[in-house]
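SAMPLE LOG
Freezer: B-3
Tube label: C17
Construct: single chain, 138 aa
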Amino acid sequence: MSTTATDILNDLLETLKNGQEGFRMATEDAASEKAKNLLADGSLQRFKYVKELQELAKSLGEPSPTDASSFAGKIHRGWMAAKAKIVGHDDHTILVECERGEDAAVADYVMALEHELPAYVRAILEIQFDGVKNMQIA
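STRUCTURE (predicted):
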């Protein structure tokens, strides 16, 4: 089975939507302004990356690029919410859980970049990958 550039973009879009929603939810739960700002920045970054990849997918002929998070992302956010109820809304715990999500995003970008991609698609993914890798969470 061949994987097209739009398949890869749609997979990354799910990953980015997971991050966007996870950061948004974590922002609401964080106590300190520093943590809230960091998490809000993460959500905004993912929002921008989603819009960029959706436009890129459309330019490649994808009529309706993914605009939803994955089931696994929903499960992780549910776990974060349940853990917060048990442990409390401790910023350290919230940031550690967000870092786990970031590790998954990094892995997804690594897999995406292992494929043959048009040069301009690869260039955008590499820029986003650097942004994801360089986001300091915990």
